């Protein structure tokens, strides 16, 4: 067994803003990692007392339980509309939404696009795993061409179901957003870059600069029928060629 | 080389293996021991090689790992 010596210092522990409740996610799912990163950013910025999370519908439906801050559960896809209301009534609060691709890029497209176009001073965390995880792996608007899903058993066909939506590029065309970026979590370097991007997005909101969107390419080992290791490799090799990484807009 | 140590919350580990891939010193492996949920949990197979770099905890999706590191006097604390 490893031995603890007196000289040892704790260099990593559970963030204070993360509740001591176990995640309900599958093994290897990036949702837990993103939740931990956001909690760490809330700690670093010292905004726990005035942060509100707006939850989606999907695997992350219980997101309000895992943060030690206020939270509200919105109707499917309407998180940006709910966040707009909270932020306009209480401009001192730090409001962020946590949405998957089915929530933000499918049923909630109108609310998400118009919140971005109005330049609401909110932070949108967009978890793009290219599939509907909670309902059992159906095709999402972001599903890659040729990718298997239960509702496209021969792989997604562009003639039948169109092409994957690049939501961040759509939002980047608008004049209002101050920060739009796409990140991933397939290795340590990318995880650190994602932490910096989320911190920057929250920092811009604290400084009242306006709307920011952080898209994160996440895995779904269960619905992709891969091991977590294979899923990370799939993101690095395949997904990033369709959804290129990097900052699209930074007007901060 | 600094010395490190990690503590894994076995009941929260889901055995995804991402920490095993992440460890640059190849300290971690599956223990063959199963927790109450039936997951094969990770353990430190070769604890002497741990440098406390915290790569394992950076990749852990379930925040099960606490990292400790020996910090030599004068170098100051370096948070992961």
Mind explaining what this structure looks like?
The complex is a heterodimer of chains A (252) and B (80). Chain A has one domain (30-250): Thiamin diphosphate (ThDP)-binding fold, Pyr/PP domains (Rossmann fold, 3-Layer(aba) Sandwich). Chain A starts with 7 loop residues before the first strand and ends with a strand. Chain A has a seven-stranded mixed sheet, sandwiched between helices. Chain A is 38% helix and 17% strand. Chain A has helices spanning 30-45, 63-66, 79-89, 101-107, 109-118, 158-161, 167-172, 188-206, 221-224, 228-242, and strands at 8-12, 51-55, 70-73, 94-100, 123-128, 179-184, 212-217, 246-250. In chain A, helix 2 links the parallel strand 2 (51-55) and strand 3 (70-73). Chain A is α/β, with parallel strands linked by helices and 252 residues long. The longest helix of chain A is centred in the C-terminal third of the chain and has 19 residues, at 188-206. The model of chain A has no long low-confidence stretch (mean pLDDT 95). Chain B has 80 residues and is of the alpha+beta class. Chain B has a single domain (4-69), classed as Alpha-Beta Plaits (2-Layer Sandwich). Chain B has two helices and four strands, in the order βαββαβ. Chain B has helices at residues 18-22, 55-59, and strands spanning 4-8, 28-34, 40-44, 65-70. In chain B, the strands form two sheets. A two-stranded antiparallel ribbon of chain B has the order 1-4. The two termini of chain B are 16 Å apart. The A-B interface holds A 1-5, 7-14, 18, 22-23, 25-33, 36, 188, 191-192, 221, 227-229, 232 and B 3-6, 12, 14-18, 21-22, 39, 44, 47, 50, 52, 54-55, 57-63, 65-71, 77-80. Strand 1 of chain A pairs antiparallel with strand 4 of chain B.
């Amino acid at each position: 067994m490893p031995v603890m010596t007196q000289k040892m210092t704790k260099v990593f522990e559970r963030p204070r803003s993360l509740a001591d409740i176990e995640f309900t996610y599958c093994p290897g799912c990036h949702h837990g990692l993103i939740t931990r990163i956001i909690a760490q950013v809330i700690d670093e910025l010292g905004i726990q007392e005035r942060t509100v999370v707006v939850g989606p519908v999907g695997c992350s439906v219980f997101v309000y339980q895992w943060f030690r801050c206020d939270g509200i559960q919105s109707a499917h896809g309407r998180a940006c509309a709910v966040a707009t209301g909270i932020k306009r009534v209480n401009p001192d609060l730090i409001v962020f939404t946590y949405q998957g691709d089915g929530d933000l890029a499918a049923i909630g497209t109108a609310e998400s696009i118009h919140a971005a176009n109005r330049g609401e001073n909110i932070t949108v965390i967009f978890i793009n795993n290219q599939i509907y995880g909670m309902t059992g792996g159906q095709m999402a608007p972001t599903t890659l061409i040729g990718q298997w899903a239960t509702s496209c058993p021969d792989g997604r066909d562009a003639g039948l179901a169109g092409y994957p939506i690049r939501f961040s590029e759509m939002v980047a065309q608008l004049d209002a957003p101050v920060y739009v970026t796409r990140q991933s979590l397939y290795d340590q370097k990318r995880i650190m870059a994602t932490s910096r991007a989320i911190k920057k997005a929250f920092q811009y909101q604290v400084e009242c600069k306006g709307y920011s969107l952080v898209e994160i390419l996440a895995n779904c080992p269960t619905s992709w029928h891969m091991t977590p290791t294979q899923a990370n490799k799939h993101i690095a090799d395949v997904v990033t060629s369709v959804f290129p990484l990097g900052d699209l807009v930074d007007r901060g | 080389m600094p010395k490190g140590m990690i503590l894994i919350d076995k009941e929260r580990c889901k055995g995804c293996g991402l920490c095993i891939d992440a460890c640059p010193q190849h300290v971690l492996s599956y223990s063959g021991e199963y927790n109450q949920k039936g997951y094969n949990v990770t353990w430190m197979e070769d604890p002497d090689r741990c440098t406390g770099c915290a790569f394992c905890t950076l990749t852990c999706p379930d925040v099960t790992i606490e990292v400790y590191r020996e910090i030599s006097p004068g170098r100051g604390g370096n948070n992961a």
